[in-house]
Amino acid sequence: MQKHRKGIQSGREKRNFLTVAEMAKEEFRVYNSMTQQKEVFEPKVPGKVGMYVCGVTAYDLSHLGHARAAVSFDILYRYLQHLGYEVTYVRNFTDVDDKIINRANELGENPLTLSSRFCQEYIVDMDDLQCLIPTHQPRVSEHMEQIKDLIIQIINNECAYAVDGDVFFAVDKFPNYGRLSGQKLENNRAGERVAVDLRKRNPADFALWKAAKPGEPSWDSLWGPGRPGWHIECSAMSAHYLTFKFDIHGGGIDLIFPHHENEVAQSCAACQECNISYWMHNGHVTNNNEKMSKSLGNFFTIRQVTERYHPLSLRHFLISAHYRSPLNYTVLQLESASDAVYYIYQTLQDCQDALSPFLEESESRGTERSSKLARVTPAALECIKALKLANSSLNMFKKKLQKQQQLSLIQSLIEIEKEVKEVLNILGLLSSSSYSEVLQQLKDKSLKRAGLVEDDVLHLIEERTLARLNKEFAKSDNIRTDLTAKGIALMDVGKETIWRPCIPSEEHLSQ
């Protein structure tokens, strides 16, 4: 009993000496799609994390589904770094594919030129959404040797066969096929984007290498000129940058089957010691509760949304639901996200304005801060609470306080602002622009959605002021009500009237 008590005591003492980051590491859990349960995160190499995330097939501008995947794993990347891990983050581009070839033929363009153009457009979109640049962004076209070498390994291990210049994976040779998705073998539709080939030994066998066709890009190989199948690219590139043993493999939930299922089969067939610790998948973005996708034609591109809404508003919308849950797109949701971002930045601006006279003095005295950040989701909730507390403190700040109370309040506001900024940084919501610049950008977007320019609003404010002076209160109320319906809120501050964005009426949103 005494030994047991001593063990508990030493455990407590050890925990007391742990840093906040170390404690967060101990408590960090991830949902593993392979085991279908939450697991304590333990990297294969202490202090280091290898993460591979499937990127886009580059044949068009990216839509909100692509944005959600990118933002979800960007937050994971940021949080792992926040915990002190050295992260090698790999996110690929599929730049050789049937869809790319078909689109290039429609446009009369070289397939690799077209895919390169849309890879670059994707990078621009990711920068707008404040996604950090991954450690590596490999393209299929630049890794043909690695892909061919991997296929040779699979053939040598008798898990693939060549037919007329094509190479197929033999699913019968991999008894664990289906363990990630839970799919039965007979449900597989060959896992590629073409009709079932009668030359296959099993209809579920899928292509590792496709023989060249006229007018398509191709590369020389032992089986003749051709190009890779869809799935082999990720097995080859993840192994090249992270080896066959790494920590996290991520992507959209639609990739679990067949893409990731086939990756598991290929990689394990090539290397028996292949092991990925955690498979993670984000949920769909839906439109009227139907999966948003290019094939269904019900998608909105990132550009279409950011033309009307600030990229931070879109990012806020994308993280407004648990990353594994479906996220339904509505204009009202985007408006709410935009309103939330404005509230955050207005509060930060108010804090900065109130504290600016005291910051130099505080810094010169060597103020220390206490870091108490929890995991990302609780941290986001704490961020909101902290902002409300900041607003409450700012209201108190305006009152007459004794010097000691004022100093205490100043210190409290400084701490709140620093912690809020750190949480916003993890969430990717902290802009490199100044608070005032972001607020102006949000106002400009709201004016665009309202079909107004700022001079229109200022003119209406003057008209309303005059109406109030003339005691034409019905007219002044109508001006205010009409603007509010369009998403422009008027606020009387002393003798001055200012405006800020607000959520428009449902009637205006439906127009």
Notes on the protein architecture:
The chain is an alpha/beta fold and 511 residues long. The protein has 4 domains: 30 residues, no CATH class; 282 residues, HUPs (Rossmann fold); 84 residues, no CATH class; 59 residues, no CATH class. The protein is 50% helix and 14% strand. The chain contains 17 helices and 15 strands. The strands form 5 sheets. A 4-stranded parallel sheet has the order 4-3-9-10. Strands 5-6-7-8 form a 4-stranded antiparallel sheet, with helices on one face. α4 packs across α5, α7 crosses α8 and α11 runs antiparallel to α14. It is elongated. 38% of the residues are buried.
The low-confidence runs, each spanning 5 or more residues with pLDDT under 50, are 1-18, 366-377
Shape: elongated
Structural class: alpha/beta
Describe the sheet with the most strands. Answer: 4 strands, parallel
- What is the number of strand segments? 15
Quickly count the helices: 17
Question: Can you say what the CATH homologous superfamily of the largest domain is?
Answer: HUPs
- Strand residues, percent: 5-15%
CATH architecture of the largest domain: 3-Layer(aba) Sandwich
Task: Tell me roughly what share of residues is in helical segments.
Answer: 40-55%
Give the termini separation.
73 Å
Could you tell me the CATH topology label of the largest domain.
Rossmann fold
Mean pLDDT over the full residue set: 88
Family: Belongs to the class-I aminoacyl-tRNA synthetase family.
Pfam family, one: tRNA-synt_1e
EC number: 6.1.1.16
Cofactor: Zn(2+)
